[in-house]
Amino acid sequence: MNNDDYATNLAFFLLDNTGSIYGRWKGNLPAKRQRELFGRFLGKGTVVINGATERVIHSRKVCFGLDYEVTADLKWADLAKSL
Question: Distance (Å, rounded) from C-alpha 63 to C-alpha 4?
Answer without folding.
Answer: 37
